[in-house]
From TrEMBL:
<feature type="domain" description="CUB">
    <location>
        <begin position="886"/>
        <end position="956"/>
    </location>
</feature>
<keyword id="KW-0677">Repeat</keyword>
<dbReference type="InterPro" id="IPR035914">
    <property type="entry name" value="Sperma_CUB_dom_sf"/>
</dbReference>
<feature type="domain" description="EGF-like">
    <location>
        <begin position="70"/>
        <end position="106"/>
    </location>
</feature>
<dbReference type="InterPro" id="IPR001881">
    <property type="entry name" value="EGF-like_Ca-bd_dom"/>
</dbReference>
<feature type="coiled-coil region">
    <location>
        <begin position="4"/>
        <end position="75"/>
    </location>
</feature>
<dbReference type="InterPro" id="IPR049883">
    <property type="entry name" value="NOTCH1_EGF-like"/>
</dbReference>
<dbReference type="InterPro" id="IPR000152">
    <property type="entry name" value="EGF-type_Asp/Asn_hydroxyl_site"/>
</dbReference>
<feature type="domain" description="EGF-like">
    <location>
        <begin position="340"/>
        <end position="376"/>
    </location>
</feature>
<feature type="domain" description="CUB">
    <location>
        <begin position="657"/>
        <end position="769"/>
    </location>
</feature>
<dbReference type="InterPro" id="IPR018097">
    <property type="entry name" value="EGF_Ca-bd_CS"/>
</dbReference>
<keyword id="KW-1003">Cell membrane</keyword>
<feature type="domain" description="EGF-like">
    <location>
        <begin position="108"/>
        <end position="149"/>
    </location>
</feature>
<feature type="domain" description="CUB">
    <location>
        <begin position="538"/>
        <end position="651"/>
    </location>
</feature>
<protein>
    <submittedName>
        <fullName>Cubilin</fullName>
    </submittedName>
</protein>
<keyword id="KW-0325">Glycoprotein</keyword>
<dbReference type="Pfam" id="PF07645">
    <property type="entry name" value="EGF_CA"/>
</dbReference>
Amino acid sequence: MMRLSGLSSRLTEMTDQMNQMEENITALATKVNRFIGTGQDRISNRAIRRITSKVNQLQDKVNTLTQLLTENECNSNPCKNGGTCADTYNGFICNCPSNWEGPTCDSDINECARYAGTSLGCQNGATCINTLGGYSCNCPANWFGIHCTQQHDDCSAASHQELCGHGTCIDEKRALPGQPKYRCICDVGWQAGNGGPACTVDIDECNGPVRRCSVNPPVVCINLPGSFHCGPCPAGYTGTGHTCADINECEMNNGGCSIQPYVQCINTIGSRTCGPCPSGYMGDGVRCTFIGVCNVNRGGCHQLATCVENTAVVGTYRECRCPSGYIGNGEGPNGCIETGGMNCASNPCRHGICQSTGSTFRCICTDTGYTGALCDQEEINPCDSAPCQNEGVCSRTPGGFTCYCTNGYEGPTCAHRISSCGGEFTQDNGTLQFPETGFTYDHMMSCEWVISVGESKVVNLTFDYFDLEGGHNCEYDFLQINDGPSAARMILSRFCGENLHGRSIVSNHNQVYLWFKSDKTVAHTGFKLNWTAQNPECGGVLNISEYGSFNSPGYPGLYPNDRTCSWLVRVPIGKRIQFHFATLQLEEHSNCSYDYVKVHDGATDTDPIIGTYCNTVTPPPLTTSGHSALVNFHSDSSGQHSGFHITYSSQSNIQGCGGVLTTPTGKINSPNYPDVYETNLNCEWLIRIHPDNRLKLTFQEFMLEHHRNCSFDYVEIYSGNSDRAPLLGRYCGQNTPPELLSNTNQLFIRFRSDNSVNHNGFKAEYKTICGGLYTELTGILTSPYYPESYPTFAQCLYEVRLEPGYLINVTFHYMEIELHLDCRYDYLEVRDGDSETSPLVGRLCGYRAPEKIISTYNNLWMRFETDGSVQNRGFYAEYNAIEIGCGGVHTEPRGFVSSPRHPDRYPHSVTCSWYLKAPPGYIIRLTFSTFNLEPDSECQFDYVLVQDMDRTAIGK
């Protein structure tokens, strides 16, 4: 339009100019005629004619021009298809509508080409069809509208209930035009049926593969539309029916067992039993009738002894008195021994007791150091010859002597130097030599060492000398070094031969595992190495509360070749970590075999990998499930890039998933309990109380996914402040774990779930207990606040755990505990082992210190409990270790046992018993590296008997 407006103005201007020109010509003609008429000018006729002709020609042109300017060419309607005509000099211009073009608007515009890629074109993959004067869009199946910009929502055609029944409608992309498409997410308890998506079929939870109600004891499952219901727990149990816990009938009114006299109530699954009536009573344990101690089996006295009731005798409440002419304590079949008669009248036994035997007598030597028929011959003391070497201590024994060797020596006379085959070292520097100087290592040996330095350090190993049997692939004798605490970690190298003098090896972590193995042929002098802790070239431990960052070595320059770095990132327990990759420039490879960054969802490289990167594409943020992560960077020998820069921050975890607890008592449970827990959880709790106390953890409910090795969903409990502390147990399935007791004032608990099956989870409570764990060879055991009065309602656990090869001797110097016939109120319970299920030594109370107690193995378990009334001073006891040389209880994750005096010959007439105990969920593997016993087809003489927990023989 602007163009037409300008053209009209130009035509008007030209018309004005022509009019002015015509006026000028007329004026000129007038002047010419005037000149001719007057004859004033001497102009020839020829010139006049020439001028007149030119004027006339000019007049004709002006007239023609005027006609063309005044003629309107738009009167013939030359513009087609709605075009607007604008008159011009000797022509016209058509202003065409948007869908036509050309001089007269008779050419169709291709809108498909013109509008392609713009908002006026067909959208979302639609096909454009050009038409005369317009265009149309052929939309894909899932779109509609003029330009295909509106999407079908098939779930809006009706209500969710009409479309999906017991489910939620989720719209999906249509595959074919005109055919609606959607899917239904069924509510819990419903499923699709009849070939359609609607959730109209009830799921029979009671007949599924997962038992919804209690299996042990069995509880009936009742199916309901969209749900199910568990019947009540049977008698003797309590619970929801989903789970049923045994009722401890003994907690109420002693389970119906006799209270006076007190009879122990023993809880059983679904019921209870009553123990026997105490001495002096008869009955079934529910009712006990007093008949006197001595009226029951003579009170346990010898058949010749007289039983006399005496309540001052703690434990038995009776005395057994031998008749005249007999000596002894009167108890049992050998309680009374005849001492006299005419045969013994002369007191022939000088250092012993005379026992009449018919017409003669025999002497029982009672004084140490005397022997012979009359106990009058002084024995030669075998220790007088100082047979024990290397400062060993000689102890006289019946018929011989025993040497107690100092550290580093063994053998019957302490003559053999011990080679330290295996061990753990926690110093930042030290020396490891195997075997000792001047010796060669033995055949068929397998030794393991673990060296641990500060968490933020790495280990530098330097060999002083190295002398092992050589081999092409080190298949005979070798030393293998792993980058971590076990053989499961990455192998740094395996060495043999004699070519390592002065060589250094640096780990990537703060621990290394060394494994020495020899075959049955050639032996050499072994090796000697020094280790020191040093700062890593890259990596480290990053403990932060809010945020931080780290980058590849050399960043923003090129990272070096052949470099391995590890960063351990930790935020407070109960938080998660979110990583952001600000820059990522690594060598690209299809499976990240060259240069890479790996992120582990946990503190070790055995934890799940949640991200592996080896390209130049910046990944999205990455979030861990727990409070720690291990980031490993590795570069190979070729290719370099600028690497990476990573920032990280702490994020809130799922509500109820982990935290730090410091109250004396408390409860923890899986998130969402008692409803099912979510998948992919990693919840961590740290319980920390006063340093003088310990913790007891009790699970009330436990329902997790079952797996033989608890590899899917599980709960781990560590006795300490992290997963580097000793593992108390790893549990899964539906069996409630046992009560767990910490060794320190802290417990670390981790709950993990995988990405599939989930259950109701667990509920547990913890409380503070007094007592302690004692591992020294000597120590003192006292009641709380001794020598002041002990508190009411106390529960203290004392555990003495010594190394195998020792027994425990406990001497009580003082005891003042509320007295009761059966020690029912306040008492000290002593058990010969490492738990409350170990054999009972006795339940102690009263005001007389008991006799010495000597354990059978290297563990002793004691529990001190008080009620809410009488308070006394309690007890004071000392314990010391008795070395026996063999046998014992082993609870460590790995170790070794050997025959007495190994590798020397074992002595005659010895019996050694070892008890190997692993945490629940684990099995034990035995590997014999040396075995040389007296041969016999039936192993009747010398033998090793291996039995399972139920005493079933595994091998002999």
